[in-house]
Amino acid sequence: AISACEKGGQWQLAVLLLRRIVDMRATPNVISCSAAICACERAGQWGPALELLGRSRARGLEPDATACNSALSACRKSAFWGRALGLLGLMESKALAADVVTYDTVILACEQDEPLPRMVELLEGLHWAGRCRLEHCVVSSGTSKK
């Protein structure tokens, strides 16, 4: 049902259904939490997306890359690059699988307010960590400005 809400653009209903699961003293799983976070992301609701991510972690559920990428995307859409960087740091500290989508989303979030030194640092770190080729990140970053 939560996935249907996500696909139908009903982020508030997705959040409500997730809360009802908790109210019934049942434990939501990673899939239902991710679907609710994705629903928030599609609506550009970064606050509820991050809140759901935090509550999931508080319940002992470690979010997957899809949930984290959705929360990052919500931050990007709302021009909250600082939150995006914080979430990336959280992912790295918890050894969550960040992928090219994760880093592209963070780079795009940073471009909105152009904290250039931080973007350069992020690109260099990605390159040296072997997480993505520097050329790919630079091309991705450059095409978003057009």
Automatic annotation (TrEMBL):
Against InterPro entries, the record matches this protein to: PPR_rpt, TPR-like_helical_dom_sf
Q: Where are the PPR repeats?
A: 29-63
Keywords of this protein's UniProt record, alphabetized? Repeat
Q: Which residues form a coiled coil?
A: none
User: Which PANTHER family does the record cross-reference, listed alphabetically?
Assistant: OS03G0856100 PROTEIN, OS12G0638900 PROTEIN
Its recorded name reads: Pentacotripeptide-repeat region of PRORP domain-containing protein
Per the UniProt record, the source organism is Alexandrium monilatum
